[in-house]
Design brief:
Layout lengths: L2 H24 L8 H18 L10 H14 L7 H5 L7 H13 L3 E5 L7 E5 L1 H19 L2
Antiparallel strand pairs: 1-2
Amino acid sequence: MRAWQRFNRCAWVTFATRQLANMATRIGVNFFTFGAAMKSAYMRFLSLVRMASSLPGMPALDPVEERLLNQFASFWGNDYQPTVLEALTIDPGISRRTVQRRIDGLRDKGMIRYQSDPNDQRIKRIAPTDLAIKYFSRYDQLLNSAIQNK
């Protein structure tokens, strides 16, 4: 396993753990007292994610594309669409050329689209498509079902 693959898995685990902590806070449960119930919910979530990645209707994403898409989602969640130039420097562990190829791949797969900046037509912003919203909704449902099915 390459270093970037290990890092991506660690980043995904960190992302999922944060999501579980946020969900626990929303439902009024102390994240650190989840104990065995949290561990089993997390294990169910990981199992569901593995199954969901093989379901039809979603494009296959490589680890770098997943990582970029998750980073874009953190921007979109704050009502901000990053520029392509910002995206090229979003992760210092990935070369600019690789990021550009993966952004093009995400666009070809229908996960993102370029949108011209209203103030400067030369600037291209990265916006989610309906497929990307569906992608994140699916993972949100998996996370919710893992937590609710204690």
